[in-house]
Give the backbone structure.
Amino acid sequence: RAEAAAFNAVRVNLGYDGRPVITVTESPGAVKVSLTKQGSRMLSGVVLPQDVTISVEAEAAVGPATKACAVALDSSAAIGIEFDGSGTLTANNCGIWSNSTSPTSIDAEGSGGATAAAICAAGGVNTGNHSFSPAPQANCPPAEDPLAQWSPPAVGAGCQPVNAFSGSGTYTLNASNGAFCGGLTASGAVRLIFNPGTYVIKDGPLAFSGGASIEGQGVSFLLTGAGSRVDLGGAATVRLSAPVDGTMAGLVFAAGRSEPQLASRIRGQAELFLEGSVYLPTHSLEFQGGPAAAMPASSTVLIARTLRFAGSST
């Protein structure tokens, strides 16, 4: 079709009866058309020793017209992004995107709302009684994974001496002491202060609950292995900022693309201030209950296999 359109454009605009050499190059989401012909020299023959080649090319590509900062990656999910309840999602100057091609790629129930620069689904949309600004679009091109080129750092040997904290007290943790084998849990009136570094959560959950307070600057959490998921809730308070350099730069919570499919959740009355991105491409990530989360950095993205915003989460 591109070749026929190119030849037709030449005939309509130039009245050229011959057929130029037309080359069509396709790549995922893009097509490029090149036209080439030999030009006769006429007056230019005085200074040019041989005929010249005249060519032109044009390229078109499909893709999000705006930066996507909340992305559900799974193209085969029954629901890519689900809104259920009275909660709100605000994506300032960026887009909310579901790559699911199902009829319910974006599915909404309840009385909440979502605001973004664009709201798009690769499949269909069910808006229910939810309030959207602007209205979600169906059959959009899928959003590319903005972190598709990222690879997690290697995980070294050794385990942290303690991976469960409860009761009360303040504890300062260091990433150099090894991975949290079996996960990391904190509950009760516990305050955990993380010194800068990448903390590996291996073969178990990262679970804070019961009023635990978590804080750290230049901190990232790498989840790897069976059961390594995020579970924050029960009035937990989390204030974290990501590193500014290194393999985990800009990432607060992250998992590799070859990790098992897991369910991560932020629930209850959790309060989160995350200066950095959440990248869980194999996780279904759910905000449920009444958590309030702020991710203010201009480079922040929220990426998961699927996303669900339930209850009165904001």
Summary: The chain is about 5% helix and 45% strand.
